[in-house]
User: Fold these one by one.
Assistant:
Number 1:
Amino acid sequence: MARRGGAPEVNAGSMADIAFLLLIFFLVTTTIETDSGLDRKLPPMDTPETDVIIKQKNIFTVEVNKNNQLLVEEELMSLDQLREAAKAFLDNGGGLGEDGERCDYCQGARDPGSSDHPNKAVISLQNDRLTQYSTYIAVQNELVGAYNDLRNREAERLYGQKFTEMDATYLDPKTPESVKDELKPKIERIQSMYPQKLSEAEPKSN
Amino acid sequence: MSKFKKKKEGDLPAVNTASLPDIVFMLLFFFMTVTVMKDSSLMIKNELPYADQIQKLDKKDRVIYIYAGKPSERYQSTYGSAAKIQLNDKFADVSDVASYILAERAKKREELQNVLTTALKVDEETNMGLVSDIKQELRKVNALKINYTTRKGDAFRNMQ
């Protein structure tokens, strides 16, 4: 008997299999990328002619040579000691700050031979042209870590919250504006307590 | 002959799988939409160093990428094994970086042009000389906000 009543139904039983195949393909190829890294700001090219004179005791020099060795304040140091050394330098508070104030929140040794005030303290990072990039990043990471540790300490004392968490919430685009407005003065206050003065000198050619 | 047959006891009814394709399609569409296709294929070895004091990068449309590292094996016969810069899909010189940044910046929407970040994706075995050269070029065109893109991990792993 010939069928006349329309086209025969297409068997859709294998549709699930086809869809599964596609699904597995996309599952395997997907990499949900979240790029993250160390944010830095380069100094502008046209630096003012008037050289700002910084006292030697307010500069913390970190040199990385071509053999990836660390020279901190003219002394050989291993990477795991760098963070503590940088923190001791930044948190010293041995003298008066930019506006002639004493550092009342510093918990350092107050050694007159080290930095005067966190807002005067500068970390100078020098590298050789043959330094390996991974070493350089590790050193940068430790120095940023020193700043973050100190900022976290102050933020927990003042606001009971870590600075890095506050900063991450502030930068998150999903955070509502009202929360951001509330966080902004707090973040700025902590940042002004320990301003990040990390100068990256041009490398020495050898 | 009864119209309402009594179900046999102890016999489980088959699970209806008619909506399975719909569920699978839903998942499929989800993964299709979240998949980001890589816009430039890497011609260099690009193993990023580790760091843990990291911040998340801005939205994708505000970032300009610069890659650097040794050419991968298939290109080493033509380009040698010294570290090179890759911009978009081709190798470039240090002197090309400035014009590349300007060209990329001009492509972006006007309100974004001042908030652009340059992400440096540099292989961990690269020497700092090349990175410094790139940084000098970036300073020339006033692209001062940079981000050393890293993998999340303990920084001491870099030293091994």
Number 2:
Amino acid sequence: MSDEPKTTQTKAADDAAMADLLERSGPRTPIPSEDLAQIVRAAEEVWIHEVAARRQGAADVRRGRRWALAASVTVALVVGWFLLAQARSPGIGDPVVVATVDRLFGEVLLDSSSTPPQLLEASAHLVAGARLATGDRASGVSLRLSSGASLRLDRSSRIALVDSTHLRLEVGAIYYDGGSDASDLQQITVETSAGQFTDIGTQFSVRVEEGGAEVVLQVREGLVELTRGTEARVVAAGRGLALLPEGFERPFAVAPHAESWNWVIERSPELALGGRSVDEVLAWVSQETGLEVVLPEAAAALVTEVVRGSVRTTEPLEAARLALQTLDLDLRVDTGRLIVVVPEE
Amino acid sequence: MIGNHEQNAAILEAVPPALENVVVREPTTHPDLGLVRRILAGDRAAFDDFSQRLVPALYRFAASRLASDRELTRDIVQTTVCKALARLETYRGSASLLTWLCACCRNEIAMHFRRLGSRPRETPLAEEPHRIVPAEFVVAPRSESMLLDRESAAWVHTALDRLPSDHSRVLEWKYIEGISVNEIAERLGKSPKAAESVLTRARAAFRDTYRQLMEELGQPLAPGDRQEPVVRMSRR
């Protein structure tokens, strides 16, 4: 198999060797195209994220250099401004707001370093270091992080908001939805007794059983990087991973509309329908419920219509129904799909 | 086979430099480093090359080590590729990107079974031959020892994957299913002479593709091929 000109004899020997190799390789099973597509999709998501992060980093460095140059010229002015501003603005140690309460369920206890433990109030602002504890039964809370992401806390849970990108889950469950804006590079890291979970453009939940006997990750959309000690890896949408004691694990599959997401749907933030197009509402419903929206052709042209009025709801399917009603359309839910129905005349 | 290559490298380190057939080669970087730089720079064509050329090859490599467990293979390959892309900056070009990915994949497989506290369901020893060959594919019975080990077979299949489908199809008909040239001609709707000509082109294409793949992996071309001169990498 060299590049040199071959005699008929060596060519025949080459062909024989190649034929032998092929025969001995056995039949070729096809690579499942859907598996390959899934792998490439996940890879592409990581690649886009990494490229964007590199560009952001490079821009920060360039910006930093420009700022350094500008600072060296105007240092005297800056110092003067700083001294003046210090007298007027809040101190450096002032608490930073990292989240706002979107929706509150039952009683939730707030414990921050600046105030004694108290019941959390609707629309409260939470500062870095705040600790939240939800009660049993129907307790829970839906927060809007300063990054714009949604963070939900199930009943019987305890978390510490270290800052807007880092929280510690002691027990119970959290759900994180980074939103659909892929350009938003702010990630969240959830720290648990079993490891750290960092989102890569994601919807995911983490549940810590009492005593930390089991920590369960479920990825609904995008990817989550799991770090345990020095080991890191990525878990993709549709997959779950139960981290068991002594480093053991149990992987499993989880559909985006599986029942295990029900507590998340129940804690959906409120949506004002007025001023949004019907397809915007449907996209939100899909994001909240994990259902795939199926639009018949006859309805596709209609859903760009904007909903009028001041209707607000916290129930995704109700939101979809209300928005579709304005177009005389209906819906049904069938095995992971929200199907828009055009009523017959 | 990669394992053999590593062993060879270790053996070569111990070869006295005075040997006549020793060629001292300056450390060079693999051409894949250029591809990696383009991927890191956000070049779509480079990413497509990566995903179309390397991901299927990695899939076959993983499947050969995981007894063709489809779900596990998909998860392991996905994790490997995603992690590799996240730390692509650490690729230094001392081996091909495929070799690097295979090394990452081996680690993922090892970690997976360590986490489960078990061994692979079927330990994929390099020497282990295929045990399951559907009868319809076998024309003349072959003894198991005549079949390639799973990993070597995976690379032959990867080379076939990389061929245009009309080429890979005729090669499989001829050499794996044992179909005669006349029958291939019938299937192609061509004369036997034209079918032989397609086979000749397909063989040439396979030879080139397989050779390129083996070069990517830094492996000898095929069992029985003549040995390359001993190469000793100088260290700095």
